[in-house]
What does this fold into?
Amino acid sequence: MHDLTTLIAAATPQAAHGDVSPAVTAFFGGLLVLMILCLAFEEKIHAKKSIITGVFAAISLLCATAAGLLPFGPVVNVFHESIRLPIYIPAVDWGVIAIIVALAFVPMVLATGAAVDFARSFIVKARL
It folds into this structure.
């Protein structure tokens, strides 16, 4: 684990904000390639895609935290209030989460619409 931390911590503290060393980029690129390979061989390793993705996301967050790549500290909102939040909350792209949640409701809405159409046609036929 010490070698892994040393490799990840290769990001120099005097570098400009957002600049990381090629070793860090290669490490996280390797994690991405490994995740894609695990997803490709999902049936062979008997794992679900959501579990594979979640495990690699947790590993990436923990490694980035260990390397000091995530900016911990207070978050200033639009009212200029300083709030201490874990970095995992503001780092999430909530717009994407909103789209995923909204799309999860589409099958239910479509099923409800089909049920309503069926009920209408049944009532019309019953009146004839």
Observations:
- The first strand starts at residue 74 and ends at 76.
